[in-house]
Amino acid sequence: MTASTPVRAVHVVGGGEPTALVERALESVEAAAPAVCVVARVPGRAPLAELTDARLADEVGGALEEVLAAVRSELGHLRPGGRLVFVLPAPPLMAVNGGAAASAVTNGVLSMARTLSLELARDSVTVNVVAVEADAGDDPDRVARAPLSAQLSALLGPGGERITGQEIYLTAGSDLGRLRP
Fold it and tell me: Out of the domains of life, which is the source (predicted)?
């Protein structure tokens, strides 16, 4: 890294399950611009019959409100030229049994990110989504951390200012051949 490119800390917001994974993946990432990683709170699996109106309002509506509030609170730090990355679990983006609420949240955030990438382009703020799926090895966190760290380095480091509006799946190919929304 050159002396003219300051290294910045990456702010992680949100309360989703992979927050600790994201924080550990960022330990070796050198951000070249103000950066924020948003990790959404994603509901667990539940049969559709158990998804009452109250549960949907909290688990889906509440989670989406938290993400939007986190983005709004961080925008001042990102303009101009910042980087915004949403980190989501991959399985609900691709559909899983009992995952209606989780799918609603993850795909809602994905849609929000697509829109934000268009709206924030005028401020040179990049917006991307990274979908992660831990491998089923002995230490899935360790297995998932290396590719996540490499991907975040590419998005947040020098040269990442040209990457925006992307959805990137770190799934070791488990999403191959599946239709995306």
Answer: Bacteria
